Amino acid sequence: MNPRNISVFLIASLLLMFGITFLSEGHVVKEGEEEDGFMVFDQVVKYPTTETFMMAGKVEHPNTESIDSIVANIAQVVVEEEAPEEAVKEPVVDYRKIDTSRIKRMDWPANKQEVIAKLKKQLSSGNCRIIHYGDSQLEGDRISAYVRNRLQGIYGGEGPGFVPVKQLYHQLKAKVTPSENWLRFAAFDPKHEKFDHKKYGAFTSVSRFTPYIHKDSVSLDTIEVTEASIAVAVAPTRYKRLRKFTHVDLHYGHAQTPLSIEVYQKDSLIKKDSFPADLSYHKYRIDLKTPPKDLKIVMRSKISPDFYGLTLDGDKGIALDNVAMRGASGTVFRKLDRENFNAMIRELDPKVFIFQYGGNSVPYMKTEEAIDRYVKYVMSNVSWVRRMRADASVIFIGPSDMSTLQDGNYVSYKHLPYLNNKLREACVTNGIAYWSMFEAMGGANAMQHWVDQELAKSDYTHFSSSGTKVISELFFTALSLDLNE
Q: What is the pLDDT at residue 68?
């Protein structure tokens, strides 16, 4: 064959193969992993995109020394244990030990001083409830527990706040043990059909001891009364303030049939009440002289009401509710019943909202236009909640760095920096303080090093126990520096 023809053939073939890269696309094959290629039925035939072809072998690794210095710097003020019982005052953290210039600070609206002064007044008011909404980064009271303990150490307060009746994951903050017949339903859970009434309360999920049915669809005479119970006790947590709650509030609503409640302590009946069928929201309070060790709440009804959960609080100071919503992206609030949500918010009276979302949307947003739509949607949900408490302060914590496996390397999702910037822009424009967890960690491709140092888990998304303390203190320090300037 003519050498010239061979050369033309090879060049043409290479150009054709390169041209096909323009048609190739990235596909999420499972959470945390992406492959380039073409979808054939439900399988990905691998083929590089133009971008990955041109960038092959050019993964930009972060400055690991810089990340190490961020961690080592803040580790000096991480609170591992609480002050001893005999201590008169909480030890004051000496921020002179650290290089504050290395702390990623909060981004504030244009009226920064006014917003900070309002937040400081609310925190020091002697009665400040904070609701911390977020995704799976909060499960098991992660981040919330550390921040709660630090705030209660400064402004006072006791108890862990919200605990669901039926729990999907281990709770460290209190021992809440439901009887075996409890069921859980969440507004953000795609695995079950949503309730027509949309009454999921301010904590966005409910627990029931009978399946959900409408009373008009059955003959009540044929239904037996069902009994269920909840045992409540302090947990052996290292945070002693969590063990000092003396107010147990049971939040419920949408009672279609009469409800009876009996409260026992050490097998002795201490309280007994009966309530008529009532579709409204209610709070049932149990006041105790000492933190419970063997409290038991027994309920009976033909059709279970919706129980929104328990709040376990002290008399005053900071109460912080951890509301972890696995798989959520912060866009569920507008789908809830406004009257029911507002009734519960009025009773809880939160003075501060913290929203922490964005991470669950990162793997699925492929264009800047999609991110723009998401940011607009999540901000409309935040605004929906804010209208329930117009005087509440609002803080938004952006997503962490997250890695996806691409061509054998773990790299940050392509559009994560853009999402972080758009969330910041939307927040400060709308009077909301913003903290970039992404930048606090070290920016793009920092997650790989956090995993290597056992500060994050091998899913390249969630923090480890030690990493949770570090990222929580980074947030708390950023907030404290601005509150005390």
A: 72
- Kindly state the average pLDDT of the residues 82-90: 47
Cβ-in-10-Å burial (0-12, 13-18, 19+) of 184 comes to middle
Residue 9: Cβ within 10 Å count: 11
> Which pTM value belongs to this model?
0.86
Tell me the C-alpha distance between 107 and 45, whole Å: 43
The CATH number of residue 182's host domain is 2.60.120.1360
> Which domain does 21 fall in, by range?
3-54
d(CA 330, CA 349): 21
CATH code at position 473: 3.40.50.1110
One-letter identity of residue 273:
D
Quote the number of domains for the chain: 3
**Of 315, 331, 360, which one is at a domain's C-terminal end?**
315
129 touches 392 (CB < 8 A): no
Residue 59 within a domain: no
Q: Are residues 386 and 458 in the same domain?
A: yes
Q: Is the Cβ–Cβ distance between 98 and 284 less than 8 Å?
A: no
Phi, psi (deg, nearest 5) at residue 448? -55, -45
Contacts of 113 (CB under 8 A, 6+ apart): none
